[in-house]
Design brief:
The protein is α/β, with parallel strands linked by helices. It is built from 11 helices and 16 strands. The chain has helices at 6-12, 15-30, 107-126, 141-153, 166-176, 192-197, 239-243, 252-258, 260-267, 279-283, 305-322, and strands at 2-4, 34-35, 40-44, 49-58, 67-76, 87-94, 101-106, 133-137, 158-162, 186-188, 201-204, 223-226, 246-249, 276-278, 297-300, 326-327. The longest helix has 20 residues, at 107-126.
Length: 330
Amino acid sequence: MLILTANEVRQALPMHECIAAMKQAYAALSGGAAEVPLRSRLTVAPHEGLSILMPAFVDGASAQEQALAVKLVSLFNKNPARGLPLINAVVLAFDPETGALQAILEGAAVTAIRTGAGCGAATDVLARPDARTVAVFGAGVQARTQLAAACEVRDIETAWVYSPNAEQAAAFITEMAGVGRIPKDLRAAASPQEAAANADIISTATTSPTPVFAAADVRPGTHINAAGSYTADAIEVPSELVARAHVTVDSRSATQAESGEIAMTLQQGLLAADNIHEIGAVLNGQAPGRSSAEQITFFKSVGVAVQDAMAARVAVANAHKLGIGTQVAW
């Protein structure tokens, strides 16, 4: 049985491979080739914490194309103020033929990479082919993978970063400029308006309960990824913008229960449920994608367990090829 640390997960799960795996995961989910029970949520109210259990099985033509995994992820809102990660997680990967435990993976790294890759998959499908600028809202771990994913699927020339914490934004730029396919031209935006108004692609990765930019700041043809908020009473993207966008989600059932952007816009009567499409259905040719260069496209991700299962499958296979990780008797 293999154990992969966070650094080993990062080595074994390159962004371009994870984006391809997320497309497979989304297509399987929307195509009925995945078994994904409702996630179990455990509230740890005294510590502003939430623990979530996420199992999934992804079917395929052979065992090599199948994936079986369970993730346990905890989000404790007080942790950043303590100098601790917001997210702690573990992924258990099983042999889909026998159910035997194959690997234990540090789950926060898996979550960060697969969340960015999931939005990267949507960006590849929905963003204009000539998109050259990105704006990232947030300067944490998730924001880093959001930027990396966008740059993996489009030839990005300039990226804007907005965070109310200027020191965090500066550290983000120092660390990320010129890494891989990320351009050296990273700029700290002085305001949300400056970031949004200059972007062909916008990605939000914050814990803000209220919109992080105004609808009027977004120009026609922009693609938006919203991946930060994960409760039905929190929104990063204004409802009026969601209402006039082409709306796609990772999971219709999950986003209607867990996404403020979707739930609130539906409750306000600004969006019809029939106008919400799963990105997997778009990939499968069962739902429309972008219809014009001027259309605003919006993708909401709350995270689904098929992503973790497919990401774990890729990471474990690559770890064996690279000879990394720790083998232990079980």
